[in-house]
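Q: Two folds, back to back.
A: First:
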Amino acid sequence: MNYIRLKQKIYLSKLDKKYKNCKMYINKICAKDNIMANSLVFINKKKYLGEKLPNNAVILTDLRRSKKNLIFSKSPRLEFAKIYNLLLKKKFVIKNKIQNKISKLSKISSKNILENNIQIGENSIIEEGVIIKENTIIGKNCIIRSGAVIGALSFSFERKGKKIYHMPISGGVHIGDNSIIGSNSVISKGTFGFTTIGNNTMIDTLVQIAHNSQIGNNVTITGGSNIGGSVKVEDNVLISPCANLINNIIIGKNSHIGIGSVVIKNVKRNTKVFGNPSREI
């Protein structure tokens, strides 16, 4: 579940005349790190690392390149959101849904909100007041504490003047085995794929984990911490209370983020950082 399928071949030139020069059809929607043939994707030059751009996908970008499959836009993410919402409005999108599977050996309070298309493994405990949204997978021997929200819609949108374009979200959340999610913590679902929490990972109270983040195994995230979108936290990391991690960074294996730290760049493995902005100590 890392891309969106369309019900038929779509030519953007038929959706809007401004795409009249685009002759390629699309039949799926992808992220830039998973570009597939005949997919629609956007790439911002701020996040472009020089990788080769494929010729078999329609790419919305602010990079100036003379390639027939590239559509120039000053705001490619905004353009992407507009097209995605239009495809949804015309009912061309096939929504991702996982199979519903809840173990009879799990203990689930009757005072919860559980949507369809979720999976909960053996011996997991779901306390009262939990909300579990569709496309959520919870492994074996997990505990989800009261008030937690698993699979919340992410805070993802673009503005044009006074108009707001919400980024459609169709992914989910995958929590591994033997992990705990604390009270009133929120884990947002991925845009296309899963926001993931590894095995044996402990997440305290009032923690926010944004869309597309990848939290490794044996990680500890303590109370009041905020993990931005598309953050990768490798194994055996300790994040102390009220730490804030900006989007799109990597926290290396065996590292330690100090209390109240504001982390705005990658953290090397086996290091300890502290402060605002954080620095190695």
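A: Second:
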Amino acid sequence: MIVMRPLVSVIVPIYNSEKFLAETIESILNQSYRNLEIILINDGSTDNSKQICKEYSTKDKRIVYIEKENGGVVTARNYGITKATGEYILPVDSDDIIKNTYIEKAVDVMVKNENIGIVYCKAEFIGGKTGYWDLPEFTIVNILKDNCIFVTALFKRTDWVNVGGYKDYVKDSTEDYDFWLSLIENGVKVYRIPEILFQYRIRENSRSTKAKYNKRVIINYHKRLYKENIRLLERGDLKKYLKNELNEKITLAKRMKCLMLYFALRIHLINKLPQGIDI
């Protein structure tokens, strides 16, 4: 008996990406996992991106090409997912690279573990910066402190529906962080493949190089998750910051306020430090 493997919809929002777009598409087409639907969403590009997409769509029937007016990566990604028919979703930015066994290994984890709903991997930089991307491994404490899951992670389409997709109220290029926290709030478990299978391109105008991070916004939209895990967060560096202020007599609201002040101070200090120095 032949068992059909789940369909994976790869979602690629595109805006003026002609320089690296073909390389990104090739990395998707070269996947060892073949049951793919590749949705290219042209978000109002004014360069040669349209022609590149159309050329590839005539070569491979798995490619679906969509055009829309420019609205930004959040609306483009969400729109692409509304057109997807796959059980699993993998977003890929139009200048990044996935290695040829990434989807196969990610699907294998998801199929064998029903409780896991986010699968990602280790990663490295390409482009303006090269080398290993030293992201902390996922733990609930690490993800609450800062985003440690890049956007190109496999998840279930039903989970995307359940949380209402990527939110457009996140204006600082951290919509993926907000999305992962929404899934985790719903009980979704996370797994990182212990292998470098993703290449993140650094460019002068990359979204990550321009983003201004606002931790207060993230905490405000995910108060329940932070409240449920506040004791874990109060350990370590946060405990040192708060010193003896936190005890059983302090209300939860006061502790949440202290938590937000801590993150605001930490981010302020990081922004003042020379590049490459962390605290």
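Q: And?
A: The chain has 13 helices and nine strands.
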